[in-house]
Amino acid sequence: MRSLRRLAAAALLIAASACIQEENTVTLFLDPNGPVTWSILERNVRSDSKNRDERQTEESQFIVAARVHQHPAMTGLQRLGATDIKDSILQDKPPYSVMTEGHFRNLEEMGRRLFTAYRIQGTSVVTRDREKFVWTLTIESVPEDMSDQDTAELMALIGTKFHVALREGEFADADGFSINDDRRIAELSGDLFDDRKPGDPPKVVKLVWRMLQSPRD
Question: Residue 104 and which of 43, 51, 76, 111 are 20 to 30 A apart at CA?
């Protein structure tokens, strides 16, 4: 299996936005009763072309798509069936900044929709053991024949930095994520869809969190 980033590199060789650079921070905000807000913040979006005309063309293509709500972050969330999708252009001159958000009922369903939409073989499961919750993502394979549009959307949805943030509670354990000091934010370590040789075992990432008990009077 080729990594998602390798697929993206191949697509970018022929895509019109081949020289667009950005910092893309993705955060899944998890509410205590289950709902998830998928937030995508694209910052410092600009072309690195040395040619002024090419740079203006590439940057114009990005911001025009954002203005008509057809940039990859938006179309990706639409494909997943997110609700109440909103996007905001925070900086309308280059380097651009755009925020895009959508909502899902829970992590398990959200992960399943992601895998189904992009033909990724794997599972997304949330289990509960008393006060602890466990989200397990198992990735078996990613198709090598993704279209340029699919690759662009998946790259936008995963971002260059991928976080899960708890509205309440704290993370207790993680595999494939690093947990910050206050235990409320977890950041993905490495590439979610990394290189893998035939016969390699599935990649498994996991987050464990618990709800904190209110102090008694």
Answer: 43
Helix ranges, 80-182 (H): 107-117, 148-158
- Give the global pTM: 0.88
For the chain, the farthest-separated pair of C-alpha atoms sits apart, in whole angstroms, at 67
Quote the CA–CA distance of 15 and 179 in Å, as a whole number. 36
Q: Are strands 36-47 and 96-104 parallel, antiparallel or unpaired?
A: antiparallel
Q: Using one digit for the tens of pLDDT, what is the confidence trace for 54-100?
A: 999 999 999 999 999 999 999 999 999 999 999 999 999 999 999 99
Q: How far apart are CA 36 and CA 30, in angstroms?
A: 5
**Beta strand 83-91 with 96-104: parallel, antiparallel or unpaired?**
antiparallel
Is the separation of the CB atoms in 40 and 159 below 8 Å?
A: yes
Amino acid at 145: D
Which token pair is 119? 């033909």
Q: What is the pLDDT of residues 112-151, one digit of tens each?
A: 999 999 999 999 999 998 889 999 999 998 888 899 999 9
- For residues 23 and 192, give the distance between their C-alpha atoms in angstroms, rounded to a whole number: 17
Q: Which two tokens stand for residue 181?
A: 């000091």
